[in-house]
Amino acid sequence: MDSHAFQKPRTIREGSTLAIVAPSSPFDRDEFDAGIARLRARYVVKFDDGIRARAGYLAGDDDRRAAELLRAIEDPDVDAIVCARGGYGATRLLPRVSVGAVRDANRLLVGFSDVTALHAIWAQAGVRSIHGAMVAALGRGSDALAVRWTHALEGTGTESLDGLSSIVPGRGQGPLVGGNLAVLTALVGTPYAPPLDGAVLFLEDIGERPYRVDRMLTHLEHAGWFARASAVLLGGFTDAVTGADGTAVYDVIRERLGRLRVPVLAGVPSGHLDDNLELPFGAITDVDSDAGTLRFAR
Fold first, then answer.
1. What percent of the chain has a predicted confidence (pLDDT) above 70?
2. CA 90 – CA 65 distance, rounded (Å)
3. How far apart are CA 216 and CA 271, in angstroms?
4. Catalytic position from the list 204, 230, 278, 289
5. Which CATH number fits domain 17-153: 3.40.50.10740, 3.40.50.1970, 3.40.50.80, 3.30.70.2210?
């Protein structure tokens, strides 16, 4: 991977236009409305009337969700695309999303969890994106989270992290990619996986028992993902209930990743957490596992 391949998307500032899309599951309407109100205090916000649609565990059928996303990508007035919620469904849209169109549009995508599938396409296009809270989470989140989220959107967010836990010492550098472990594992062997050569790979998840985390990490290892990365970062592994055998999720992580030949850092405060730190996917990231630090280049 060319470490300088990720272009900066168009600048976001007060008055910029945000397109809201729901590529995955339906959302809580009250939280969505509260999040939209927060965004409208600073930005122009637009979304389709059908965004509130429900089709079982999806926010409308594939045609609706894909058309909404493609309109947001192609609309020349849109400055950034913000997802309403994660859940499930974004992977079903991947064959319809053109990497070339994402590259040409060159606009920021914001989301996490199931939106990992779209982050992978943005990474293939070499366009930066933000792994961070979505509209519904902004609606129920604190004022401090909303302020920090705004700084991240406008390119003045966190530049460094300290006090992280070293699993494998060493230093590495590369563009930051990744997201939800389960979604990334589902992309193995497909044409939709993110580019990994020389990348810093970030992983997080929720509700996965330790043995399932073991299975997914083992799968990524067998697929050669860790051998291609320059470093591995671990975020929250929330609600990973320890089984009757007493094996905890971080026991699995240390055993599975502790043998890697690249630096591995745990404790990045990002993922399915109440205070989900925004991460600048595509930014060149310096990893110093000896010092327990990250540095994000602008």
1. 98
2. 9
3. 17
4. 204
5. 3.40.50.10740
Q: How does residue 3 score in pLDDT terms, banded at 50, 70 and 90?
A: low
CB 184 within 8 A of CB 118: no
pLDDT grade for 130, boundaries at 50, 70 and 90: very high
Q: Note whether 132 and 112 are within 8 A (CB).
A: yes
Please say whether the dihedral angle defined by the alpha carbons of residues 65, 95, 101 and 175, taken in this order, is positive or negative. positive
- What's the rounded Cα separation, in Å, for the pair 213 and 247? 11
Task: Name the pLDDT band for 109 (thresholds 50, 70, 90).
Answer: very high
Catalytic residue status for 272:
yes
Predicted confidence (pLDDT) at residue 274 exceeds the cutoff of 50: yes
Catalytic one of 16, 68, 131, 272? 272
Q: How far apart are CA 8 and CA 25, in angstroms?
A: 29
Q: Count the residues in the chain.
A: 298
| Dist. CA 81–CA 51, nearest whole Å | 14
